[in-house]
């Protein structure tokens, strides 16, 4: 129980030599699914000391699933991208990548942000680091020949680079919770990654964000900030992680570490953006102007409301509504953080803030699910809940392409409006379901799968096992109840690395 002013959370025994948690021993869905590959993990199975360690297996599985996703795009790669608009939707294999090779001037050798485009968008509408990634891929794409072959090569080069990002993503998730490496298998096997990873370049930001979370879990706030700044230079959403981190550091009093993280993030973002801001300000602003002025689009709750009511929502109204709802979400997150009986885990709050952004944004492109996958796995590593959510996202993935096929074919084939609205509702409900499960884990920590293994916050870094210095509401009431009566102080019993109880030595407890 926490004390009134300073409380110490249970020590994370994963820092010792505790064996890795095996999902087939703890999760009935994982145990049932393992029958397809020989059954649950047995006593004679490899323990991770040979060539097939958990992290290596997860990386190989991630690469394999990514390759299957590339195979799923074969109809488009072979002909549908080039010979008909509707076919790329009916085969659910659309990708922005080949279309933007010529459409954003890469085929003509134009420099992103500096050279003006001839179409309706004057400059490349992507953040700077993503633009650099696209430019590097264009440099690696063989020139000459028919444009169709160049676009195929551009997609293939990008797919190879994005595959590396997918492997990095899976490895970072597997290594974040040291005693639960096999949770990374959820990322590696996620169908949404296989289906959406080559639609756009989002997985670059997702991989950088996962690497940042890994650095924070290792107690390296500056490295966390640098990687988060690079991720924010690739996509906007990673900066949101600084909000829950602020709340958690406030409750634990870790202001210096939070300051290091913020400085690292700001510095890395400026290093990437400042040259373009100075030398090509009009091109640099294009991403932010495009995001501000973009109409309500596919997958968003605002599109659902517009279609059901017949009242189109303007970009200005949608921006205002989304901003107000995000403010409410942040306030709710703060109340949850300060009043929870135990300090929430970092990735739990990170998942909730990004999910709130996804649910309130005025567009939900199919690849945006990538933002949530690693955070969902770390926040709620339960196969049943993850698969329920993924099933909803796969249904939405199919629904949006069938709806586009319906509109592109003149309402002759595909999914009509009512069917697409049902797909949007499935996406919203699936994400909300996972949010509810995470909030339940925060309010009743004994249900948290990670804390059931004796850990406190293995992704929390300096927050793991730290004392609370600010609590409110229910947490403060519990703290007052936990204040011991005056008298001789009893020795604190801790868990040693062998798993046996021990009293602290003369040096005291380092908690």
UniProtKB/TrEMBL annotation:
<feature type="region of interest" description="Disordered">
    <location>
        <begin position="481"/>
        <end position="511"/>
    </location>
</feature>
<dbReference type="Pfam" id="PF09594">
    <property type="entry name" value="GT87"/>
</dbReference>
<feature type="transmembrane region" description="Helical">
    <location>
        <begin position="320"/>
        <end position="339"/>
    </location>
</feature>
<feature type="transmembrane region" description="Helical">
    <location>
        <begin position="260"/>
        <end position="280"/>
    </location>
</feature>
<keyword id="KW-0472">Membrane</keyword>
<keyword id="KW-1003">Cell membrane</keyword>
<feature type="transmembrane region" description="Helical">
    <location>
        <begin position="186"/>
        <end position="216"/>
    </location>
</feature>
<feature type="transmembrane region" description="Helical">
    <location>
        <begin position="153"/>
        <end position="174"/>
    </location>
</feature>
<keyword id="KW-0812">Transmembrane</keyword>
<feature type="transmembrane region" description="Helical">
    <location>
        <begin position="420"/>
        <end position="439"/>
    </location>
</feature>
<keyword id="KW-1133">Transmembrane helix</keyword>
<protein>
    <submittedName>
        <fullName>Glycosyltransferase 87 family protein</fullName>
    </submittedName>
</protein>
<feature type="transmembrane region" description="Helical">
    <location>
        <begin position="53"/>
        <end position="71"/>
    </location>
</feature>
<feature type="transmembrane region" description="Helical">
    <location>
        <begin position="386"/>
        <end position="408"/>
    </location>
</feature>
<dbReference type="InterPro" id="IPR018584">
    <property type="entry name" value="GT87"/>
</dbReference>
<feature type="transmembrane region" description="Helical">
    <location>
        <begin position="222"/>
        <end position="248"/>
    </location>
</feature>
<feature type="transmembrane region" description="Helical">
    <location>
        <begin position="346"/>
        <end position="366"/>
    </location>
</feature>
<dbReference type="InterPro" id="IPR016570">
    <property type="entry name" value="UCP010361"/>
</dbReference>
<feature type="region of interest" description="Disordered">
    <location>
        <begin position="1"/>
        <end position="24"/>
    </location>
</feature>
<keyword id="KW-0808">Transferase</keyword>
<comment type="similarity">
    <text>Belongs to the glycosyltransferase 87 family.</text>
</comment>
